[in-house]
Amino acid sequence: MITFENVTKTYGNKRAVDHLSMAIEDGRIFSFLGPNGAGKTTTIKLMTGIVAPDTGVIKLDGIDIAKEPIEAKRRFGFVPDTFDMYERLTGREYLRFMGDIYCVAQAERKAHIEKYLQLFSLEDAYDQQIRSYSHGMKQKLAIIGALMHDPSIWILDEPMVGLDPQSVYLLKEEMRAHADKGHTVFFSTHVLDVAERLCDEIGIIKQGQLIAKGTLEELRGEAGDGTLEELFLELVEKGE
Amino acid sequence: MAAYLRLLIQNRLAAFKPGSYTKDGKSKLIAVLKVIGFGLLMLLLYGSIAFMEYMLFDLLNGIGQGKAVVGLALLGCTMVTLFYGFFHVNGSLFFSKDTSFLAAMPLRSRTVLTGKMLSIAAGEAGVSLLFCAPLVIGYGIASHAGIAYYLKNFLTFALLPVLPLTVAMLLSFVLIRISALWKRREGVTTILAFVVFAGIMAAEFGLTKLSDEDITKWLLSMLVGKESLAGLLLQKLPWLQWANDGILTAGVNGWALLGLFALVSLAVAAAAVLLMGGGYMKLAIRQSEAIGQVNRGRKRGKESIGERKPVVALMWQEVRDVLTTPVYATNSLFGMIVTPLMICLAMFSSGKVSEFVELREALNLVPRGAYLAVATGVLGLMGTMCMAASSSVSREGKCHEIRKTYPVSGAMQLRAKVYMGIVFHGAGVMVMAVLLCVLLPDFLMENIMAAVCALPLAFLFSIAGVIVDAHHPKLNWKTETEAIKQNFNTMIGMLLGLVLMALLVGAFVLLMKWGMGWYSAFMVVIGLSLVLNALAFGWLNSRSGKAYLAH
């Protein structure tokens, strides 16, 4: 479960996140939508401990990330939108590194790596340097690394970008399975079709404020019938 | 061309803006105070260099060789540009991340090469002008020189880096061509860079060495005021001789000599760009693609994925990062490799081995305790010459944000960097200690003891470097060179190391004055260094750990 209580973050004169309060229940896939510069990335940075909020409290599985950052960080796996790090490591070295950082036992990490390497067809590239990977391959490796410690909360920033259709399908299946086990998946996307078909709940942010949150049906009730795309455009334009 | 060059220079200048270094304070007053403090520190650094230059000028002026400062400044700048310029040129031409981007632009290969070289030359010219100003201004004031003298100096020092950078460029092309023969070309590049560097050093030692006959001749001539020290040093470097004579000769003759210097410098550079420019982009792309191809065909092996503690995993990641990135490797291993190399080259290339034997015999008269203290100090200084620790946070660049999501404290992340630093700082100490053991076997026990006692110093400098970088990291870099070479933190880290060394030496001298024996004073100072280590480690774990996460 993820909770935001009156969270605000300001950069200079710009309020990137403005008194954000929301709760994402266990067993749900939550899609976070918003136009460019709306505050999605800042929200993700706040909940992953990359930046600290000016005011407010963020709890991951009931743990305040400001008060117990290390314990809170063990609860989630984070996949950034672009993976451009440790490019001189091989896939194996990177996954070993992630296993060490999250203190994953050898047997568990081996099983996890085997499963996902096979799932994402990354076996042949395992011992090659990351910089020889394509964007999609890097994304897959980031996902394998982030989920290695079997976190209860998945935080995925634009996870489908660069993935081939087969991998997108497999990732969606994994997300669904994770949520069905009673865990939480939080992901941001610009692909509204994916959000529409996959998510249990949708949040829309604009100028740092949460302008809508609920199931697709609940949002339809707020803004009338139509596809998520039409709803999104209507809700975003409403405030202008 | 003009637009591309402007972009390169803007990018270069942006590296010096305070905004390149993160601000951890929220108060504007604190931010302003920090900028002022930083400015004062830079001023102090420059002031101390200017003071040393003034002392040199005063010394030479005292023996009637004041005008030699111009020649010495020219020679010094040329050598420094060649040393450091080589790594800079190599990194910018062949290890820059903009190669693919530029390849897609409607720019000629020669234009890109010219633009890059002009941008580097502009930076090096700025450095030359800045560092030689105290010497040449000092002489100008003392000799009541007119405006023409200052104008000539400005033009000369602005053009001075052109020729050494051209040599560096040609060497860089050769290096990349040779390294292309091996698969592990980054490792080969790093090793060959040091080999080329050793070659440059040997050549310079050979070109500027003064034989006993030369020195005697100069001393005799100096007494009757006929021979100049600069003339003697520059006799094998004609283009520097033209520049020197051009600056110091009044009238048309002086300007003509300067014109000759400028013409030769620019003509050689233009010829080199003309010759190599056409194939530059092709070679740079092949180089960048070869990097991407590393291990591409490698099949899955059976290496271990065994467990390690997080701090160990972080430390080895740091060590690996330094060793596998040529720019980081060359800058971090520089002191460790170059200092012993210089000692060996200075001894063997100038035929001073016999004098060294005499030195060894003279050293036998020195008290053992005194030797131990000096050797420890020398080995300790090696620890101040490494950039690995003082750029370790900056080198994270964009990765810094992701590293903050790891379930480990900021203090642990920094401790891992300190341990990485001790690997490199400690290695520097050990290399130098081995050299001392080989050169001075009579002091074997003292050399071993000095190596052991210098390790706390290396640890201290490593912590100091990480603390400096943790509080003001330069994370917004675009090239790896910016992260380490064009990073003020590395300079401040070295300066801080030297200040700490000066403190310890001061304490040692004071204890000796109070009547303490060599060994007792030495042990007290080592104890003091351990206390400083504890204090610095405490600071690192508390304040710096928090600062690291705040960026």
Query: Total number of β-strand segments of chain B?
Result: 0
- List low-confidence stretches of chain B: none
Shape of chain B: globular
The CA-CA distance between the termini of chain A, in Å, is 32 Å
- Kindly provide the name of the CATH class of chain A: Alpha Beta
**CATH architecture descriptor of chain A:** 3-Layer(aba) Sandwich
Q: Give the averaged pLDDT of chain B, no decimals.
A: 81
Order of helices and strands of chain A: EEEHEEHEHHHEHEHEEHH
Strand content of chain A: 25-35%
Poorly predicted runs of 5 or more residues of chain A? none
How would you portray this structure in words?
- The complex is a heterodimer of chains A (240) and B (551).
- Chain A is of the alpha/beta class.
- Chain A has helices spanning 40-47, 69-75, 91-101, 106-119, 135-146, 165-180, 192-198, 216-223, 228-238; strands at 2-11, 14-24, 28-33, 55-60, 63-64, 76-79, 153-157, 184-188, 201-206, 209-214.
- The model of chain A has no long low-confidence stretch (mean pLDDT 88).
- Chain B has 551 residues and is mostly helical.
- Helices cover 79% and strands 0% of the residues of chain B.
- Chain B contains 22 helices and no strands.
- Chain A binds chain B through residues 45, 48-50, 52, 69-71, 73-74, 78, 80, 84-86, 88-90, 92-93, 95-97, 99-106, 109-110, 113, 123-124, 126-129, 131-132, and chain B through 291-296, 298-301, 303-310, 312-314, 317, 320-321, 324-325, 398-399, 401-402, 404-409, 549-550.
